[in-house]
Write a structure and sequence with these properties.
Layout lengths: L23 E2 L1 E6 L5 E6 L2 E6 L2 E8 L8 H9 L1 E5 L6 H7 L9 H5 L3 E2 L8 E2 L4 E13 L8 E13 L12 H4 L2 E3 L5 E3 L19 H4 L9
Antiparallel strand pairs: 1-11, 2-3, 2-6, 4-5, 5-10, 6-9, 7-8, 9-10, 11-12
């Protein structure tokens, strides 16, 4: 099949586009509003950008009323946020924080989550999460949409601090993803989690260009020797 996105003439019962770039890690973003009240919400259009220094990106759509989400406002006003990794074990609590609570509601309390103090930023971390990234706001890019919910704020943050629980670090020094079971968004209301891992060695089909695995693993300064 083929369809033009402007016509949206795919003829399927459900729109397919958001089911194509999958699975997507969930940005479980904690912030503080201008009065210091905590906010916590998940966003499935989230990814890392680079590693030296590390940056992350969150895409946050506006509301049907063309209003920016609380997370967007909080990040731009305070310049800080925390990403908390969502696991299979935490999916129900994550789902609670996705509800459209009015401004000022503490989603930590609504979902029964524990606040943990951060080190370099003010927003709280989700104590139950095995991995948290403390971030500073770098830039916002506004993407116009053809509808209110199609408009989006692309928020780029610099990771200034990383928290990893010792119990999810394996004896080989790698994060044990089979133990963590990170949750990921598929299309529609479907999700998945990591339950299988395999390794692919970088190909040398184009000739020996050095240890490309250093870049693939995000080895800081690997190519500045």
């Amino acid at each position: 099949m083929f369809y033009e996105t402007e016509k949206n003439d795919h003829g399927l019962a459900r729109p397919p586009f958001k089911s194509i770039a999958v699975p997507r890690p969930i940005g479980w973003i904690s912030t503080l509003d201008a009065d210091g009240k905590p906010n916590l919400a998940p966003y499935s259009q989230f990814t890392n950008l680079t590693f030296d220094p590390p940056y992350v990106l969150i895409s946050i759509n506006t509301t049907p009323e063309y209003k920016r989400k609380d997370t967007t406002n909080n990040i731009e006003r305070t310049g800080e946020f925390v990403h908390n990794m969502v696991t299979y074990e935490l999916m129900e609590k994550m789902n609670i924080t996705a509800a459209p609570f009015p401004p000022g509601v503490d989603e930590f309390e609504a979902a029964g989550l524990t606040k943990a103090e951060s080190v370099l930023v003010k927003p709280y971390r989700v104590a139950e999460s095995p991995v948290q990234l403390e971030c500073k706001h770098v830039q916002t890019i506004r993407l116009p949409g053809t509808s209110s919910v199609g408009s989006a704020d692309i928020i780029i943050g610099k990771v200034v601090g990383v928290h990893i629980k010792d119990e999810v670090i394996g004896p080989d020094g790698k994060l044990d993803m089979l133990k963590i079971k990170p949750l990921a968004r598929m299309g529609y209301s479907d999700y998945t989690y990591v339950d299988k891992i395999f390794t692919i060695t970088p190909s040398d089909a184009a000739g020996d260009e050095g240890d490309r695995s250093l870049g693939l693993e995000g080895a800081t300064g690997a190519f500045n020797k």
